[in-house]
Amino acid sequence: MKNALFFALTAAFALNGLADTVQVAVAANFTGPMQVISVLFERDTGHKASLSFGATGKFYAQITNGAPFEALLSADNETPARLIKESHAVAGTAFTYAIGKLVLWSADPKLIDAKGEVLKKGEFRHIAIANPKTAPYGTAARQVMNKLGVADKLKPLLVQGENISQTQQFVVTGAAELGFIAFSQVIKNGQIGTGSGWVIPGTLHDPILQDAVLLAKGKDKPAAIALINFLKGEKAQTVIKSFGYELH
Amino acid sequence: MESADLAAVWLTLKLATVVTLLLLVIGTPIAWWLARTRSAFKGVIGAIVALPLVLPPTVIGFYMLVVMGPNGPVGQFTQSLGLGLLPFTFPGLVIASVFYSLPFVVQPIQNAFEAIGDRPLEVAATLRASPWDTFWSVAVPLAKPGFLSGAILGFAHTIGEFGIVLMIGGNIPDKTRVVSVQIYDHVEALEYTQAHWLSGGMVLFSFLVLLGLYTFNPARRKAL
Fold first, then answer.
1. Residue limits of CATH 3.40.190.10 in chain A
2. Which of B68, B71, B162, B190 would you mutate first to test chain A, the one with the most A CBs within 10 A?
3. Of residues A55, A125, A174, nearest to B188 (C-beta)
4. Which domains does chain B have, with CATH numbers?
5. Is the Cβ–Cβ distance between B88 and B166 less than 8 Å?
6. What would the pLDDT profile of A50-77 be if each residue is shown by its tens digit?
7. Interface pTM, i.e. ipTM
8. How many CB pairs under 8 A join A and B?
9. What pTM was estimated for this model as a whole?
10. CB nearest B69 (choices: A58, A82, A175)
């Protein structure tokens, strides 16, 4: 009995070693598309992708402290560049896999008009943004408010989520009436699914460039390299676009 | 230390102080009741008080956000009173923290009350002390180590709170941005120097609190 168990465990580990798995750290805002892409990736290449979703800054801290990630899909383009500079990522492998689109969104179907005039009226208690210090979508949201000249007026009404998912949570629960979140979070069949929203023109903020990079631990791993290549392919790009991101 | 860090430290101390005082007021009758009652509800109430010990703060924070939001029962109640909504406010944090730190105050006090036993209270009664007088003149002085433990643990636990504040705080300077959130922000923004200052301070503070607890109050080990 004991021997049988030992044999089964050994066999399981051996099989595990044959099927190449890539450990990927994925920015929280890219959760939806990455779940779809990983299925296509596994079907097409036979490799497996093990996905961890979270904040890019936290991934940076983990990667520089020995986390077993082999590829990073960052929410910005600075973190991959920094990881390359510090030799935690492979030089020359960083590329923009998606350009984020910002949306002003409310769970209330009537609150937000097509031009975002609601911001100038300011008739609400709280407006949620992602922390501009740590989240690229938060930085973009702040730029939009500055450009529209409403930043000072809205400042006392601001509440910050630690990342874009938490910001959405504030708005979904109604604790904040509206907020700046990622288009990808509320998109359904190419448009805003529920509530009301305003897809913010790219002219109002710097582009939200999301870069992916092959990490040092994935340097010689076929599955990790295959994933990076797969993200550049047509199949992945179709998915990325369908979630409301733009491409380079 | 930059001024935003100092503001966070000050806010955290203010929060912990208010919460500890409130918890002593709210927790003492609960602890007394739990220690003395033979009611069938003792188990239920005891379990509810202990819930925050086992629930992840994210669960508590998530439900608080929903319950205190505009569509939740508490949110509708506070709005009907003209108080507005509790999420993203200091009073909201206080209420959430009171619930979150409740067992850390109630349990040591309850254990201290239980340790007194019936006899001193019966003796006081035979000397014609009223129950109110007995409580203040006999039970509270005898349970002093329990109160001390409860207050220190409640204070320290509120200082270390993170998950709930993150969920219902909204990271507003001087209102809801406490030290733990400030540290998280520093780490996320890769500002490790500032993160170290605050984190190191927290480690030192926590150690000193517990050292004080174990050095000056050896009865605590029995009381918890």
1. 2-99+208-242, 102-199
2. B190
3. A55
4. 3-223 (1.10.3720.10)
5. no
6. 999 888 888 998 999 889 999 999 999 9
7. 0.74
8. 65
9. 0.80
10. A175
